[in-house]
Design a protein that fits this description.
This protein is 40% helix and 13% strand. The chain contains 15 helices and 9 strands. It starts with 22 loop residues before the first helix and ends with a helix. One of its GO terms (molecular function) is phospholipase A2 activity.
Amino acid sequence: MTESVPFDGAPTVPPARDIPSTFMASLRSWWAAGEKEAASSEERILRRLPFFRSGSSISSSPADGSVIAHSERVPLSKPKHYLNTFSIKSTAPSPDAPPPAVLLHGYGAGLGFFFRNFPALARWAGMRGTSVYAVDWLGMGRSARVPFRIHAKRDDIPGRVHEAESFFVESLEEWRQRAGLEKMTLIGHSLGAYFSTVYALRYPERVHKLLLLSPAGVPRDPNNTVPSREMLDRQITGEDEPVVADSARLAALEQEQQTEKKKEALGRRLFTHLWEEGWSPFQVVRFSLFWGPMLVGKYSSRRFGALDEDETRDMHDYITNITLAKGSGEYCISHILAPGAHARMPLVDRVSALRIPIAFIYGEHDWMDPVGGMTSIDNLKAAGNEKARMYIVPRAGHHVYLDNAKAVNKLLVRELDE
């Protein structure tokens, strides 16, 4: 059972502001930030979908008649705990429908990042008589910003990792129960892919398939990933088809990563200290106060430059508001990942226990290590799981689902149908 709270009363959605490029514009954006503006900024993104309904219009019929979508807060058992949820449901559910798909965003992001994937997945849901959900992790996006605490000692790595993982995984399991889902196909991005895999390891009977988009925390080698590139990453657009990974493509991607790592050696010692002390990169934005929206604006302009002007402004407002919200789930990062962004308990050493289909999907210019994915597939096959595969998406980086949405959407629908 869910509690529908559509955007706190479905506030009137004002037009998107320009991306702050001056002090006064940044000050106005900072002053306006808050839960209501966060709800409005998310709704501006979702209103691009013809099947989306908000507030009093939730019960109205969709234009195409196949699906209808709305947002709600799904309450959890603890007081003030809830997960922000976007649901796309078939208006003609089929008794033979495949398990619903659940999209799970990466570190510090939110469900709005998938706005270019929703139309294709909605068509799939309408044709198959099933549902698609996108969920904000507890403590991120527009879900409840509850205190994040780890009680294990610093040198108790398994204890720290288990507690941090449980914060997210157990809230997802409770959400599944509240939503009344028997099985799900999890589509996770980056750290969301990591948590999706951990969820599947704890609750294998609840997961039909894993589709991992540029998953974090897979390899053992601390030198394989460069965390600072998350904020420096630029959008790469394209419509080329994904291809099955081969040795030549993996070698080219590894060479590109090695070149980038040499450029980023300066400041690593300071970064390591801050990381181990539990520092969050989003604290920089909050501590900068009214300069924060300008910092986010620089990232938005660079990262989403290939979107049209309105899309870029709306994404900026959305990112600004979820970034300036109270810190919570973001503090998991130093417990899950060590400096260098490799997992303290890498998935490559754990994933072979799974017996479900798994697809690793990387961008051609990704900064996540695809060799970790390939090694995981080898481990899965050695353990008897032949239902593992890997894809490289051309002209895409870490945000592969957004950089080359057309290609990824086709791939996701194909995987969901198999």
